Amino acid sequence: MTDDVRNILTALSAVPEPWQPHRLASVNDYDVKVVKLDGEFVWHSHPDTDELFLVLSGRLTIQLRDRDVHLGPHDVFVVPRGVEHCPLADGEVQALLIEPQGTVNTGDAGGERTSPLQELG
């Protein structure tokens, strides 16, 4: 995949369901993922890593225990490692995530919303 040109919008059109991240590319030990978000996710944290959200379209609220962070198109927010958070999308949000390879979408919470990282075709 290192020699392939990837288009973010084309990749997002291949994502069938919300909350199922798909690897767009890898950079060193990090994955660049595309994801569709809709509704409320689960409260979780990533004890060993930060998590970068880049909203491409829609409106996303990152709920933190002490405040809410509101993101619109082209906004970036980094959830620091170990900080409990819960993404909330009012309608479909398309986003790009950057996090270390092997990072699980539900972090330390686990559960039925845990999705294995999908590869784009």
Describe the protein:
The protein has 121 residues and is mainly β. The chain has one domain: Jelly Rolls. The chain has one helix and eight strands, in the order αββββββββ. Strands 1, 2, 3, 4, 5, 6, 7 and 8 form an eight-stranded mixed β-sheet that branches. A hairpin with a 2-residue loop joins β1 and β2. It is globular and about 40 Å long. The mean pLDDT is 90.
* CATH homologous superfamily (4th level) name: Jelly Rolls
The amount of beta strand, in percent, is over 45%
Please tell me how large the radius of gyration is. 13 Å
CATH class: Mainly Beta
Mean pLDDT: 90
Structural class: mainly beta
N-to-C CA distance = 11 Å
Largest sheet, in brief, is: 8 strands, mixed
For this structure, the CATH topology is: Jelly Rolls
Binned, the helix content reads under 10%
Low-confidence stretches: none
Q: H/E series, N to C?
A: HEEEEEEEE
Domain module count: 1
Compute the number of strand runs.
Answer: 8
Shape: globular
How many helices does DSSP assign? 1
Named at the architecture level, the CATH assignment is Sandwich
Region (Disordered): 101-121
Domain Cupin type-2: 39-97
Pfam family, one: Cupin_2
Protein name: Mannose-6-phosphate isomerase-like protein (Cupin superfamily)
